[in-house]
């Protein structure tokens, strides 16, 4: 499965969370992921937290990619961070715009869009980094419309991105339609679906409303019926997401990027359900 699967983690906040991260990462080594990535900024995490978690992953033997966002950062900050990652042996970066924390006022920084960060990384570090960017099959929530958003995605690829990871979705058609439209605009880089496990209804619905991912009505209804029954939610979630992953692979998705939420169990359960060879897994 190595080249088929990549995994996403977030930086731990304390020692207990770090131990859990390491435990989960060790369990997930069985999947031989092509690479793992570590988020930045979401939930108040710092760049040092991301760099430290990347170092932990590197020690465990993973090809580890930090997420790097540009909104609110200066060119000098970003250049320094890129050099530090280079010294750390990092060869892959997930380049994002990011979001300004609420209450921080308008966007007055030097970078306003991820395409500018991609261009900056190429200008300052050449081909050192493999650059991943974000893609939104169901449209980024701030985009004027889907066509404009697709155009902005194409700009990131033209600026030098090597591949893309999508926001999560539960409707495979949204993904394939996006991939088709991107290809029609000349995009040839892999667009890998981001896969969100379903383990906690309230968290999933809240986060989906924020990031513009659609949770279909039938899934919402089933989750509502389960109430606080965590075991049923988990079993249902594993079944739904496994089926989605299988459809994506069967119809030609180039891989799967799992949002692990620093938890091994669900990702392992889903990958066990998939019809992919154990030798590759
Ligand atoms: P962009 O590609 O810059 O797009 C942002 C918006 O601007 C879109 O609506 C786009 O249509 C529009 N736009 C782009 N270019 C232009 C232009 N030239 N003119 C006008 N409008 C334009 N957030 C974190 O804080 N930390 C993370 O670690 C993190 N990891 C993520 C990983 C993945 C795989 C994904 C899908 C998202 C992640 N996010 C993360 C969330 C992300 O930061 C937000 O979705 C953010 O709002 C947009 O980032 P972007 O890189 O997609 O921005």
From TrEMBL:
It comes from the Bacteria. It comes from Pusillimonas noertemannii. It is an enzyme of class 1 (oxidoreductase). Its cofactor is FAD. Belongs to the methylenetetrahydrofolate reductase family. GO terms for molecular function: FAD binding; methylenetetrahydrofolate reductase (NADH) activity. This is Methylenetetrahydrofolate reductase. The lineage of its organism: Bacteria, Pseudomonadati, Pseudomonadota, Betaproteobacteria, Burkholderiales. GO terms for biological process: methionine biosynthetic process; tetrahydrofolate interconversion. InterPro entries: FAD-linked_oxidoreductase-like, Mehydrof_redctse-like, MTHF_reductase_bac. One of its GO terms (cellular component) is cytosol. Gene3D superfamilies: 3.20.20.220. Pfam families: MTHFR. It catalyses: (6S)-5-methyl-5,6,7,8-tetrahydrofolate + NAD(+) = (6R)-5,10-methylene-5,6,7,8-tetrahydrofolate + NADH + H(+). Its EC number is 1.5.1.54. Pathway: One-carbon metabolism; tetrahydrofolate interconversion; Amino-acid biosynthesis; L-methionine biosynthesis via de novo pathway.
